[in-house]
Prior knowledge:
Blueprint: H1 10-28, H2 31-47
Amino acid sequence: QPAPLIAYSEAMAAHQRQLKRFLYRALYRHPQVTAMNQDADALIRALFD
Length: 49
């Protein structure tokens, strides 16, 4: 695969990785969010069962 024409600098790529780790830990995989997603999943399944 050819190298990308544009890319983050190494410093910016490191910041992006750090931000991504934070968002997954603090937001996307937060226990309250996970619980709410499970509740919503159960509700949708019950509606269409």
